[in-house]
Every structure is written in structure tokens, then in C-alpha cells.
Amino acid sequence: MVLPQLNIIDTKNNLTEVLNINTTNYDSLVILFSEKSKLPKVIPSLQHYLELDQSFGKTIQVICPQDQKPFSRLLLVPTGSISSDIDDARRFKDAAFEGGKRALEAGFVKPLICFADPPTPESQPSLNWTFDEQTNDYQHYLEVTMLGFLEAAYEPIDVRDYHAKKNTSIKNFEQLGFVVDSLQQDTITLIQKVEAIEQGRRVAKDIGSPDPEQMSPIQIVKYLESTFKNANNIKMTVIDDIDTIKKEYPLAHAVSRASLVVPRHHPRFVHFEYKSSDQSNVKENLYFVGKGVTYDTGGADIKCSGHMRGMSRDKCGAAAVAGLFKTIELLQPKGVNVTAGLALVRNSIGPDAYVSDEIICSRNGNRVLVGNTDAEGRMVMTDLLCEFKEKAIAHAKSQEPSGNKPSLLFTVATLTGHALRAYGGYGITMDNGYARKNRVSRRIYDAGHILADPFEISTLRREDVDVVQPGRSSEDVVQANDKASTMTDRGHQYPAGFMLIASGLEDHGLRSDLPIGYSHLDVAGSAETMSSVGWSLTRVTGSPVAALTGAFLL
Predict the structure, then answer these.
(1) Alpha helices in 209-248 (DSSP H)
(2) Are strands 111-115 and 74-78 parallel, antiparallel or unpaired?
(3) Do 176 and 215 fall into the same domain?
(4) What total of structural domains would you count in the chain?
(5) What's the pLDDT tens digit per position in 61-119?
(6) Residues 229 and 166 occupy one common structural domain
(7) C or N: which end of the chain has fewer Cβ atoms within 10 Å?
(8) Helix (H) or strand (E) holding 377
(9) Which residues are known catalytic residues?
(10) 517-522 and 427-431 strand pairing
(11) The overall pTM is greater than 0.85
């Protein structure tokens, strides 16, 4: 699905002239506003509506002015309050998304978007891509608004395939224009960054949204091969041999055992590698592990009472990591080297399913006591995490210019129901000691806050390691208890404690001779919207592509 053409028009403090000049380039005008009293500043005739109807401007509405000047069709989109301490950039994202949907319904193809009362220049330190505690909440309101309109125009790959078969068209914008005052950044660079984030989000949503057959492990690989076929700066490697998977990723292989009787459900492991074109400029070496459970039945500890519903979205961690690599392909950041691995498996139920009480030896050599087969996400990611720990160690000991730069490892997963119970619709990030020292989670938090992809910071504590300690000489670490994460104290934190031990990262903490940063991202809350229409499935969001881009690539 092609992105619409994006344009940014600087008013240079003459909004009326800009609107009049662009009537032939655009077919409609969309006005975003917080205070409806500011609307006449854009279109003076709107004062008449405000005087006649006290409720005017409270909801999204289409207006067709009688004088039809400068545009015959207007769409008014309130953002709601942007002045409260609890308001953030999502005011613009949500308004843009809903406004974009309404514009498409109205048949707007080339809307021009302006802001009646944008955040004032005095409250914006600068329009750059740095994030800290002093950064204004709305510093990137324009980019967030652009991403909201692009999100409104997106349709998942299964919808696109359906329309292609029916030879019918999908509503889409041809062009989106954004009118701003005194832009302090190069417009071409800004648009490129917005498009890179959106293309990454679309890859994430294409993988995360469709049903488990359209995006089985094998089908995801086919999609990725097509997506990255012309990416000269990205190296993609696929592991499809079952014996190799069993040897290299034994915990993930155990999860996939019941799926092996169905060839189309066979597991796949995908590796991505990006190296900066200027190794002397590299500041960090990043490694991402994505959970790609294409369907989670719960395995032998089967999900019952309707809890299996929506488990086709348990691949959204891997989907986001793949999407991030699309953004990396387009941005070509100089300051990072990035490696990623996607564990694409199906947690099926069958005669050969792995079961509780099994002891399985991890890649790192730890004997893992299985406590619950529905805790499969940490199983499929741990051996990849171990592999990347090995790569980080080897890189640190190499003579490469970036070998002495910090190595930061990440697991990204829709991992626990506890994440939803604890933080609702927000992503969660937590650090080991070295990552905390490098403010990794804080960077994700700050970037997500500014780019309307918000995260909460959780904390990895000693209890999260204590609970998975072995109780017998037969095991080295315990995978889980026999309860749902929502019924377990610190249910979203302790899986990170398990992965630390089972991967061997525990030996590379803050005070070790070779410290390695590790941050665990549980995106069970943010990868999908919290509500759905009727009994349908929720919408996949593409989180945390925007937050990770802001934190590490810009």
C-alpha cells in the first residue's frame, strides 16, 4: 500500500495567503484545534457557527461553508485538552487518526491540514530529535500528526489481498499537506523520518495483524524476503532446518515440537544484520530478539474459557523488530550497528507437545524445569538472547572499531497478561544494571512519550531472580509456576529474571569484567489497541517501532 505524498508548507505567519494559494492543490481543509475559539483565526466565517451552536466544535464534523472560500469542504477535528499535566502527544495522534478516518469516509483525497492553535514556539525548545526530561511534551506534534493520518489510511495485508482478488480499490489519500508556522527543521529530512517510521510500522502491522495461517512462520519468511529483497544495507538469513533449530535453539524447538507434524507450521528463525557505513561513528551495538509465536494455544497447559482468542497476535514482538529493520533500512543510521533475531514458532497442542515437569537444556547449558507450557515466549527467546550474548562478547574482544562500544540486548514480546493488568495499554521496559546505568529504559520512555508511543518503566529486582532459583539438584532454573501471570506476584518482571539466568546474561552484569546491557520490553499492552468493535479483534498498532526509532536511531 503506497504512502500518500507528504508536503509541509511553512506559512511564514501568513496563513490566509497560504490557504488561498493552495486551493487548487488540495480538495479540502482539515483544521485541528484545542480551543474552538481559535477556529475563526483560520476561517473567519466559523464565528457564525460558534455563535449559533454552543456545542459546535465538540466533535469531529464536516462543514460546507456557504461562501465556499477558500475551501468548499472543511473537517474540524478537536484534539481535546493539551494543557493538563496528564495530556501528551497522543492528543494529536488520536485526533489525526480519527480525523483521517472521517476524511476518507467523506471522500477527501488531497486534504490540507492546519492547526488553529498549535503549541506555541515559546514552549518548544527546538524541533530536533533529542529526548530528555526538559523536552516539551509536544515538541514533535507535527510528526505525530502526520503519523496519525498515515495510520488512518493503512489497511492490513490481508485486506489488500482481498481487494486485489476482487479487483476493487481501497480508500487512500493521494496527498497530505501540513501547514505550520516557522518550521525550524529541514522539511525533506523531517518527511523522510516520518515515512521511515511509518514504513516500519506497516511491516510490523502486516505481520502482526493477519490470521495465523496467512502469517505462519513460513509465510512470514516469504513476506520478509519480499520486503527486504532490495535492501542492500540489510543482511537477512533464514534457518529452516529442524535439526539445526534443535541444536542451536533447544528451548524454542521444544515449544515447536507439537507443530512439526504439520509442515506448513514448521518453525523458522530469521536473522537481520545492519552495520553502519561509518564504523568510527558507532556509539552502540544493538541486539534485538523478537518473540514470533504465530499462534499460542497454550500448549499442554491449554488456554481455556476463551483465552485463546487473539493469540494470532502473539507474534507482534517479532513483527515490531522486523518493522524496526525496515525503518533502519530507510534511515541508514550512522551511530549504531544492529543485529536482530526473530523466533517464529507455533505453540501447538498434540501428542508430542512439551509438557510441564520436563527438563530441557538451554543453549547456555542451563537445565530448565518447565513449569507451564503457556509460558512459551521466554522459551523461544532465551536461546537467541544467549546467541547474541555470545556475539556481543566476541565483538568486544575483536579489533573492530566499534568493539569497545556498549552492547545493548533487548527482548521484545507480547509476553504476559500481567503487563496488561499492571499498566493497561502501555508498553513496559525494564533494565539490568548496565542498561540502567546507560539509561536505556529512560531513553525508550522519553522517546515514546514524545512520539506518542508511550512506555512505562518497570524495575528488575532480586525477587524476580529468587523465584526462578532451582529447588532440586536436577535443575538450574525454573521457567514458571503453574499459575497465569495475572495471578502471580511480579508476573511481568520475573520472566526477565528467568531469561537472564537461562541465557547466561546474569554473568555479565554491571560489575562484571565484560558488562552487557539487557532490557526486556513487554508490549502486550501497546502492540494492540485496548478496545475492539463489537466482538471483533483489536487493531494492531505497530508499537514499539516509533519509540525504538526515537530512542536509538535518530
Answers:
(1) 217-227, 242-248
(2) unpaired
(3) no
(4) 2
(5) 999 987 778 999 999 999 999 999 999 999 999 999 999 999 999 999 999 999 999 98
(6) no
(7) N
(8) helix 376-396
(9) 303, 378
(10) antiparallel
(11) yes
